[in-house]
Amino acid sequence: MTNICAIVGTKCNKSNTAYFTKKLLAHLKEKLNTDININIYNLHDFKIEYCNGCLTCRKEGNCPVKDDMKFLKTEMIKSDIIVLASPVYIHNISGIMKTFLDRLCIWNHTMRLAGKKGIILTTTSSSGDIQVRNYLKNILLHMGAVSIGDFNICVDFPQELYIESKENFIIENAVSKIIEKIKNNDMTSSLIQEVIFNNLKKVINRGIENNYTKNYEIFFWENNGLVNYNSFKELTNDILQNGKELK
Predict the structure, then answer these.
(1) pLDDT tens across 20-71, in order?
(2) What is the number of other CB atoms lying within 10 angstroms of the CB of residue 128?
(3) What interhelical angle do 216-223 and 191-209 show, nearest 10?
(4) Cβ(45)–Cβ(203) under 8 Å?
């Protein structure tokens, strides 16, 4: 079974972003015609506090803030495909999506989502989508997920979003690109991820060689044997082909 976890960053009860995320994933499931489990989580339904900058996650591997982040992180880790969907607010992601991503900062140092695929979806009525899509895609890449599509739905007037013929064209085009990427491309790594992996590995090895106080980042790399891989592609191949689990 393929598990898909979609995180929708909006506080709007009648969200265009949530609407199109649901429609895109339903169409993807239909076209792939395989056993797919889809979970869509709207961040407005969860309690998510601001990151307080204490760095406990980097030192100890856990966050002292008590809210719903633990549940959402677990759902992402259990999934094969992760969708990040956000409306464009003043050429940026929504505030609630930024708060959510801030709380995942440790994953940028551990590439915790290695072996997973990522999809980006944004909605806007004017501009700013390129910046937002690039930002979200970059976040997923640094966390280890390989992008299989980033899409924007943009019209001059929001009410035009719900013209069925327009909707179907947008969704079908996006799904076709995702399926093509899944079927035809090497989904184990990207060039930027190889650079990220090698840079992080150098920092971790330097910490080990100099007997630095072992924080969670060093523990994660050692405990999962990441320091023994020659490349990020080698790691993701081990995850995808041999079932290696990161813990």
Answers:
(1) 999 999 999 999 878 999 999 999 999 999 999 999 999 999 999 999 999 9
(2) 19
(3) 110
(4) no
Separation between Cα atoms, residue 151 and residue 21, nearest integer Å: 11
User: Per CATH, the architecture of 2-184 is what?
Assistant: 3-Layer(aba) Sandwich (3.40)
Q: What angle do CA 94, 45, 66 make, to 5 degrees?
A: 90
Per-residue pLDDT reduced to its tens digit, 132-179: 999 999 999 999 999 999 998 876 555 556 667 777 888 898 999 999
d(CA 149, CA 83): 10
pLDDT surpasses 60 at 115:
yes
What distance in Å separates the CA atoms of residue 149 and residue 203, rounded to the nearest whole number?
31
pTM of the model: 0.93
The DSSP H or E segment spanning 148 is strand 146-154
DSSP string, 41-80: EEGGGS--PPP----HHHHHSS----SSHHHHHHHHHH-S
Q: Residue 12: name the closest of 165, 171, 158 by CA.
A: 158
> Which residues touch 167 (CB under 8 Å, ≥6 apart)?
20, 23, 161
**Where in the chain are all domains bearing CATH 3.40.50.360?**
2-184
